[in-house]
């Protein structure tokens, strides 16, 4: 097997396509096409600049934290909220299912005992989410047996220069507005 | 004597201030213009907070230039083990200094007669007059080319001394490209020199304040073709897109200054931005009538109909300085427009473009000019 020469390969011929563009003398002269290109980019510049100067916005960009797009997805998964019982206590029973399922391991729950409520004697004394690592996958919402955690559409004020400021605690998460928050096919549990 | 010293010290301070400001502002203009050209917003987050208040001055991101400068100064000054330490250290300055020196011969205004500005100055200055130019040299244009040629050495030094293949490749590219385009650059201007009969930049500008027919006698009217070639060759000389092969990021990381960091790298960048302004200033001086508005001269306006509008000396000086800066700025902006519109050449295309396209065209332009000038003078 050693003395066998490699198979002879036909020399490479670039394939010609039927619709290959051909340059006429106009394109070959180069200058005119460059001028055309400059007119296009310059036109875009002047149009956008005209908008900026007259106080309109000449860009497609959204200033992200200050501005959100009107076509934000209706079911966008944003900041978490802890739902509440009618008396304002969190519905959470500190079962740690969400913390277990969380792929980014960002949920930390500390359970406490509440002798006054025999039906739900476990409650979270501490419930913290590290938003610098949260991937907003929504698995915690899926996993929750009590419908105690949901997600808002927006991510208000979360971006920060300091990652320690991106931990939200129980009180910041207990901002449930039943009227406007989280369209789910069923309402909050009562009692 | 002391008066001359004061005036020229002022000129030098003005020139340095203008160039540094252009260098700083152009980094911002470049980003912002590129952003507006592509429907974006551009740099807009850097701000200055007024101390003890929550008032944040954003000013359309104008402070990004400052932030960049501070970043350059505070970054780690990483030093590789260069092949030649001295050449490595000196290279950024060899690139940077001649760029500044070119401005010394460019007239940024007409003639300044301090005595006519205010009676207080009249007693001290008398009838002395100063052309607004740091060094009035007979061989001004030759000086420009001499200094322009020096920065090639800087690029070559940087590439050779940093013991890096990418740097070396970038330096070789820079060397052959800049030398090729320098030839074209000089050839395009020969026609202009023939027409004006001088290489003294002050004189060239003064001759452009006349008229041919109704048109101002600007260089671009005499030599529109040479103007185009000159601009293209000058951009190639400055190694910017579409001719940025020496630093082509996708091929050579950052070319001949790959091994430079912190402010040494900043000097290369700063030199590039200042050179944009220098090219604009040269183009203005040679082809766009320098510091003068159309039909304007040191005494005021002479409109094509023969009507004269006289202006006071102070008004003339201010107008000329402002007009020069405005023209330079517009041309800088035009160069940025080119930079963000055209794709980069392949390296063989760059050299082919210089030697097989621009060089013959420049020669043809020169020959036609020679024949026309000869026919008109005969």
Largest β-sheet summary of chain A: 3 strands, antiparallel
Q: What oligomeric state is this?
A: heterodimer
Helix content of chain B: 55-70%
Q: Largest interface, per-chain counts?
A: A-B, 18 and 15 residues
Q: What's the N-to-C terminus distance of chain A?
A: 83 Å
Radius of gyration of chain A: 30 Å
How are the strands ordered across the major sheet of chain B? 7-8-9
The DSSP helix count of chain B reads 13
Number of strands of chain A: 5
Q: How many DSSP E strands of chain B?
A: 9
Total discrete domains of chain B: 1
The mean pLDDT of chain B is 85
Cα Rg of chain B: 22 Å
Shape of chain B: globular
Task: Indicate the structural class of chain B.
Answer: mainly alpha
**Which percent band covers the strand fraction of chain A?**
5-15%
Please characterize this protein's 3D structure.
The complex is a heterodimer of chains A (191) and B (378). Chain A is 21% helix and 13% strand. Chain A contains five helices and five strands, in the order H-H-E-H-E-E-H-E-E-H. The longest helix of chain A has 23 residues, at 31-53. In chain A, 14% of the residues are buried. Chain B has 378 residues and is mainly alpha-helical. Chain B has one domain (82-377). In chain B, 63% of the residues lie in helices and 5% in strands. Chain B has 13 helices and nine strands. The chains are: A alpha+beta (191), B mainly alpha (378). The interface between A and B is medium-sized, with 18 and 15 residues.
Give a quick rundown of the structure.
Chain A is α+β, with helices and mostly antiparallel strands and 191 residues long. Chain A is 21% helix and 13% strand. Chain A contains 5 helices and 5 strands.
SSE topology sketch:
The complex is a heterodimer of chains A (191) and B (378).
Chain A: H1 25-28, H2 31-53, E1 80-82, H3 97-101, E2 107-113, E3 122-130, H4 139-143, E4 149-151, E5 167-168, H5 170-173
Chain B: H1 2-37, E1 48-49, E2 56-57, H2 64-74, H3 85-102, E3 111-112, H4 119-125, E4 130-131, H5 140-161, H6 165-196, H7 201-207, E5 211-212, E6 215-216, H8 219-222, H9 224-237, H10 249-252, H11 262-287, E7 296-297, E8 300-302, E9 308-310, H12 313-339, H13 347-377
Antiparallel strand pairs in B: 1-2, 3-4, 5-6, 7-8, 8-9
